[in-house]
Amino acid sequence: QVQLVESGGGLVQAGDSLRLSCAASGRIFGSNTMGWFRQAPGKEREFVARISRSGGNTDYADSVKGRFTISRDNAKNTVYLQMNSLKPGDTAVYYCASAFLGGSKPDEYGYWGQGTQVTVSS
């Protein structure tokens, strides 16, 4: 069993930065792929980034590539999403997710956090 708690969201202006954190409980954190997804009002949940168990491999959605960075600290059971050069289009609820072997689709992940709101004003 894995429980995930996100933090770090907020209201920022375009061009600002935020760092989201996702703290996980459970001994299997280090064995799982971790992902970040987001969902804007009226839209489907979409992939943002994912990181392999060791942290050696990462993938990003094209819309955030070069601006967002995913990282993890397995000693702290925490995954991060550093978001730079934020745009109004990044406004969404951001969720972290965990899976033994997760890809870019939400249904590949069995564990989800409650989400944290990120709002970017123009």
How would the blueprint of this fold be written?
Blueprint (H helix, E strand, L loop, with lengths): L2 E5 L2 E4 L4 E8 L7 E7 L6 E6 L6 E3 L7 E6 L4 E6 L8 E8 L11 E2 L3 E6 L1
Parallel strand pairs: 2-11
Antiparallel strand pairs: 1-3, 3-8, 4-5, 4-9, 5-6, 7-8, 9-10, 9-11
| Quaternary organisation | single chain
* Relative helix content: under 10%
* Largest β sheet strand count, sense and barrel closure: 7 strands, mixed
* Order of secondary-structure elements: EEEEEEEEEEE
Portion of residues in beta strands equals over 45%
Helix run count: 0
Radius of gyration: 13 Å
Identify low-pLDDT runs.
none
Terminal CA distance reads 40 Å
Q: Judging from the principal axes of the Cα atoms, what is the shape?
A: globular
- Based on secondary structure, the structural category is mainly beta
Q: In a nutshell, what does this entry contain?
A:
The chain is mostly beta strands. Helix content is 0%, strand content 50%.
Describe the structure.
By secondary structure, the protein is mostly beta strands. It has no helices and eleven strands. It has strands at residues 3-7, 10-13, 18-25, 33-39, 46-51, 58-60, 68-73, 78-83, 92-99, 111-112, 116-121. The strands form two sheets. Strands 2, 4, 5, 6, 9, 10 and 11 form a seven-stranded mixed sheet that branches. Strand 7 and strand 8 (78-83) form a beta hairpin. The chain is globular.
Keywords:
single chain, 7-stranded mixed beta sheet, 50% strand, 11 strands, mainly beta, 122 residues, 4-stranded antiparallel beta sheet
